[in-house]
Design brief:
8-stranded mixed β-sheet; binds 3,4-dihydroxyphenylalanine; 12 helices
């Protein structure tokens, strides 16, 4: 081993150390140079064979080489550690400008919760959910529902008509913000063949505003069409639903004869309540509270939708979702549903996953 060889081995090692890409590669180089069987260690072992002068010179050169390699490894270790740290800091960076999102602050709006409950109960009775657009045709909203042109519900003060682009639009062209979900009955009957069993919740619009009316509100519609469906089915279906929804096993139900153009016969749906001491309480107490309308689908409506009334018959019902929510959850003023007041929502809203879900209750 000459000093020249030592110099070239040293510079080889230093280059490799400089190029090491991680801690493991560096450690391998350390073992290769300075380990028990390392190249420099092995060279130390050969010193004994040299004569004293050569041994002195070579020994000094070897020690210098070992020092240089150790210093280079140590320096490289620091560089690699610093690089690893900054890579981690980059990866685990926390964006302190992101505003905090406190857990559990959100609430489910009572309308959403009530709609879910209604749909869940009817789903258990075999009803599918149907949907229609908020803006619908005059035909789907009125004409097909057997509403003559002079029916009060068609007057401008009740319904929001879309501005006519031209005079003389036909009933299927003219559009209106639907004043009830009954339009989904028409869409469903025109789009599918009986048997039909649907529930249609959704937004509805009327030009009204007081304690119990807002221009935008929610309804749900039910429709069953089959060959032998009768009014007894209608009453049993509503009774089962209302008892399940309010959780009152003996809640009484009464049909009061009424008029709707799209049903014949038609009835108002009343449920039992008490108003003693000015406080409204639902149950079998002898008083009555109206909660919706219903009836057997008028044969004109069936015919308008291409369904043969000599083969098929069925029932329909409709009621306000806010009204049911107000009764079930003791909310006194309908207008507050849509004021987006966070204090109201915190009080009347539902914590996600904390919801008494009728589906889970079985
Ligand atoms: N569409 C009626 C309303 O908005 C509610 C209604 C009554 C719907 C009787 C029906 C029904 O399907 O049969 O006041």
């Amino acid at each position: 081993m000459s000093e020249t060889e030592l110099t070239s081995l040293q510079s080889e090692l230093l280059t490799a150390i400089e190029a090491a890409s991680d801690g493991a590669a560096l450690e391998a180089l350390r073992v290769e140079a300075l380990g028990k069987k390392g190249k420099l260690t092995e060279m130390m072992k050969t010193l004994g064979k040299l004569d004293p002068d050569a041994r002195k010179a070579m020994g000094a050169a070897l020690n210098a080489a070992k020092d240089a390699v150790s210093v280079a490894i140590e320096a490289k270790q620091k560089v690699l550690a610093a690089a690893a740290l900054s890579e981690r800091l980059e990866k685990e960076r926390i964006d302190v400008t992101l505003s905090p999102r406190p857990m559990g602050e959100g609430r489910i709006h009572p309308i959403t919760q009530t709609t879910d409950e209604i749909v869940t109960i009817f789903a258990a009775m075999g009803f599918a959910t149907a949907k229609g657009p908020d803006i619908d045709t005059d035909w789907n909203s009125f004409t097909a529902l057997n509403m003559p042109a002079n029916h009060p519900a068609r007057q401008m003060q009740d319904s929001f008509y879309m501005p006519d682009v031209s005079d003389g639009l036909s009933s299927t062209e003219k559009r209106v913000l639907r004043p009830h979900t009954s339009s989904v009955q028409i869409r469903t009957m025109m789009g599918q063949k009986p048997p039909i069993r649907i529930i249609a919740p959704g937004r509805t619009f009327r030009c009204d505003y007081d304690m119990t009316h807002t221009p935008m509100f929610h309804q749900f519609e039910g429709l069953v069409i089959d060959e032998k469906t009768n009014m007894g089915h209608l009453k049993g279906c509503l009774l089962d639903f209302l008892r399940a929804f309010f959780g009152i096993d003996d809640l009484p139900l009464r049909f009061r004869p009424s008029y709707f153009p799209f049903t014949e016969p038609s009835a108002e749906v009343d449920i039992g309540c008490s108003r003693k001491g000015g406080e409204l309480k639902l149950g079998n107490y002898g008083d009555w509270l109206e909660i919706g309308g219903c009836g057997m689908v008028n044969s004109n409506v069936l015919r308008n939708c291409g369904i043969d009334p000599d083969v098929y018959q069925g029932f329909a019902f409709g009621t306000g979702i806010e009204r049911l929510a107000m009764l079930k959850y003791g909310i006194p003023d309908l207008r507050t549903f849509f004021e987006a007041d966070m204090r109201w929502l915190k009080h009347y809203g539902f914590v996600p996953l904390d919801i008494p879900n009728p589906a889970m209750a079985g």
